Automatic annotation (TrEMBL):
Keywords: Membrane, Transmembrane, Transmembrane helix. The keyword Lipoprotein does not apply. This is Uncharacterized protein. The chain crosses the membrane at residues 112-132, 144-163, 169-186, 198-218, 273-292, 313-332, 338-363, 375-397, 409-430, 442-465. The keyword Ribosomal protein does not apply. Residues 242-263 are annotated as: Disordered.
Amino acid sequence: MAAPAYPRWFHPCLLLVWLLIGMGLRLTNLTAKSPWTDEFSTLVFSLGNSFLPVPLNQPIAIDALLQPLQPQSGATIQDVLTHLFSESNHPPLYFVLTHLWLKLFPTQADLVSLWGARSLAAIFGAISIPAIYGLSWLAFRSRLVSHLAAAFMAISPYGIFLAQEARHYTLAILWVIASLACLVVATHHIQKRTQLPIWLVLAWIGINALGVATHYFFVLTLVTEAVVLTFLACQQWRPKNRSPRTQITNEDDINSPSPHHPTSFLSPPWKRIYAVAIGTLMAGIVWIPAFLHNAYGDKLTNWIQGDRIGIAWISPIFQAMAAWITMISLLPVESPEIPVVIASGLVMIIFFIWAIPILFNGFRTQLEKPQSRMITQVFAGVVVAAIALFFCFTYFLGIDLTRGARYNFVYFPAVVVLIGASLAISWNTLQEKIVRWGVTGKMSVIIIWVMGFLSAITVVCNLGYQKYYRPDLFVELIQNTSKVPVLIATTQKTHVQIGEMMGVAREFKFYNSHSLSAKFLLAHKDKKTNASNTLQNALKTLPRPLDLWLVNFHADEPEAIKNCVSDTQTLPPVNGYKYKIYHCNS
């Protein structure tokens, strides 16, 4: 059946609709969630500031703890680079862009604008909508596939989760999309056995360099592309496609798409693909000294490392599945109301039991179509290779990448393209034909999209992908519990713990309705410093009555606490803040 004829303005206008929906969702309630420790790293380093001036081992006021969040008029990009390379383990591109971006926004109570910082990530996330449209068009030459991919990128709960954080993942996603676009173009040249144009070689190397300069895990995307290219090479060089007796007589023979054309490791387009690989390798190598000589590297990644005991052997499987599911759907399973959680879980289970066969059948159909078989294999290869890499890191290297759902950015765009390609099959099914459970083709696509849209609202309303740290709830608990001045004490190893306390201090600064007096103690802990003695000495200097809140305090409790009364057992838990409270009256 011939595709309907649309006016020239139809497709740009429809793409604009997806862009507006996606932008609206990403900017809605943008500051409703409190910033967490990783976002504080972005804010501090992007301002050209450092965590080091924060006083340790002594009680400090809220403003002293939040001082690194104050913009400095004289801060430069060089300051950003200096502090980032000496205190963190991330490449600098996103931090430099954020430094320039934040100059456009006024401060809030002398602190950096959270909306300003998060809006940059939201804008990059919105740009991924037309970007995925372009990638899908390059791959399948189908407006339908392109629109469906853009529509699902606009409302993906996973995409919105990343776009509402002041972090570099949405920019990295744009580089993933651009690099995959180069892979698609290269695939077409491999099919035709034609040489890659120089502009593609240079663009691909530049994109890959920018990707690595945004996030080191972009390298995983490059590895998946290498796996796919190796697969394509094996397909092209397998013996049944080779004809040793055939001689190359002219240039037309080289460019011939004939399956019997002789191939070699140096035939078009492979020579220039090797050039891309070498150029990308050189662009990545420049970051190795900065990465290896960073004193904070191991300390900042301890949370994804560790031994596996008992259920920890299978937990990565469920963590990975949870991330995959949320690329399409996430209902309010983190609601405080248990009936809502149960109902949401049941609906999601029923939905996926119904939807997965539809997606799989569409994927299988694309594989069976000669014109889309290879490009579908390319995207599927990227996804499968990435998942395999994640589990190799997890089970063989002891680095559990599945614990950080955000790391799935390395193959997320490929998943979206495959969703668009799969659902295009259902959309093209005759309206009267039942696809599954009495639902027609177009209606099934609409239902899946609406489910995604409701999931996007779930994330926007903080009922899904809630922050691991909830300083808003913790400060509310302190205000409801303590009626006297408080000391909030924690052990400190890196700026991660400073960020944890910054979240609490920021909530006190903006939302301390009871005007409760609060001080903070960052007791440094290492082989030479005893955090317990630091707390003991601090308690001697503070007047009574006093409420002591030990928060994520990983050291022995000092003797002075014996004179205080604890009522921790009666209080609820708070995400990210394991605490004990002591009422010290003498």
